[in-house]
Amino acid sequence: MQAEKCHNTGMTFAGRFLDALAGCVLFCEGSHSSPGTRRIVMTGGQRLKRVTLYDVALRSGVSYQTVSRVINDHPNVSKVTRQRVLKAIKELDYRPNRAAQSLVTRRSFVLEVVTFGSEFYGPSRMMVCLERSAKALGYSLTFTNLTNASLEDFREALDSITDRLIDGIVIIAPTDQTAPEAVLDLCRGIPTVLVDNELGSTTPSVVIDQRYGGQLVAQHLLRLGHQRICEISGPLNWHGAKARHEGVSETLREAGLETIATREGDWSPACGYRLTRQLLADGAQFTALIAGNDNMALGAMRALRESGLRIPEDVSVVGFDNLPDSPYFEPPLTTVHQDFDALGRQSIDFLAALIQNPELPVHQRVLYPHFVERLSTRPCR
After folding, report:
1. Rounded distance, CA 172 to CA 195, Å?
2. β-bridge pairing 205-208 and 192-195
3. Cα-only R_g, the chain
4. What's the pLDDT score for residue 104?
5. Predicted TM-score (pTM) of this structure
6. Which residues of the chain have pLDDT under 70?
7. Cβ neighbours of residue 138 closer than 8 Å, sequence gap 6 or more
8. Cβ neighbours of 79 (radius 10 Å)
9. How many CB atoms lie within 10 A of CB 19?
10. Which helix (H) or strand (E) holds 70?
11. CA–CA distance, 354 with 334 (Å, rounded to integer)
12. 144 neighbors 114 (Cβ within 8 angstroms)
């Protein structure tokens, strides 16, 4: 038998039926007579009907105000009633309307993360850890990535962000291009925490003490007897790179030494390779090389090997960050571990505390890195 055609569209009868079914309300309920079955209540229309507060109230036999109190965890609801409402919520697969809740509570449970440098390992890893920590506390995150960290770029981004209903802002601010106080002023009173800004800042912030990491590296090489040391730092307009460099320099000065030569890099393996070749071409005679991060150390190690130098027999190499790949470098890389998971937890915990208590005293939370010794360093011969 030929399928019936719809005169105005040419759609088959089966097609019209499926289209109608898609436009019906699929309101699934557990049958009172048979709890193990489910029935479908269909009503005409072009949109799926969303289960509402009133549906939950009807199912549980209470007022919609009581359902609202249960959803918002209000204490003035009896245990029996609360359990009945929660059971109805589960049976109906009810999802509270966040937009409607926000209008009442002025809370969105959304946090904004503004970052610069997300193409690099540190900021990108921070974003992952921030999101994980936010979800654990019931928050969603939205992200804004800046291509430049100027005050004007922050102003443009934050003007848009602060027009929306968000509960708080995390700003990953790794460079010195903009004063943190000026950035905070742009947040219009929304609770804000800065991450990876300068150690000692008087703004609400969470940092890793990179200067201490630089000290750990220099102390390790000094214990191994190295005196002729070169350094390839990260870009010195980054707070972390500058602090690592200062930690290395101060520790060497305290021992009556200084680096044979220092070059400023850009965090990339290619830069580590190029600057190491440059050091060797300039005739630098060194027994240890400090790289500002593990990626630059990777490039440096290749340049050393191409020049016939063995690691660590001829040159010891140290990095920073403890990348997931660092144990698999050849040889496995001695480095400094940064706990980005802890950084994410502390940042979100701090921000959540500020949201709950805007009068919380302003302070900076400081985390400390730890040294990871592997096979790329050895005592100086």
Report:
1. 5
2. parallel
3. 30
4. 55
5. 0.74
6. 1-49, 96-107
7. 109
8. 7
9. 14
10. helix 64-71
11. 38
12. yes
Domains in the chain, ordered, with CATH? 13-103 (1.10.260.40), 106-208+341-362 (3.40.50.2300), 210-339 (3.40.50.2300)
pLDDT, position 133: 92
Residues in the chain: 381
Q: Hey, what amino acid is at 127?
A: M
Closest CA to 291 of 251, 264, 258, 326: 264
Q: What does each C-alpha distance from 282 to 233, 275, 320, 321 come to in angstroms?
A: 18, 10, 25, 28
| Tokens of residue 359, six digits | 């009068």
Question: What is the rounded distance in angstroms from the CA atom of residue 80 to the CA atom of residue 35?
Answer: 20
For residue 165, report the phi and psi dihedrals to the nearest 5 degrees. Answer: -85, 95
> Which residues have CB under 8 Å from 68's CB, separation 6+?
53, 74
Cα-based distances in Å from 65 to 56, 90, 93, 109, 216: 11, 18, 19, 22, 60
Q: What is the dihedral of CA 33, 38, 44, 45, to 10 degrees?
A: 140
User: One-letter amino acid identity for 140?
Assistant: S
DSSP state of 3: P
Q: Which helix (H) or strand (E) holds 205?
A: strand 205-208
> Cα–Cα distance between 332 and 317 in angstroms, integer?
10
Q: How many CA atoms lie within 13 A of 314 on its CB side?
A: 9
What tokens were used for 357? 């208590």
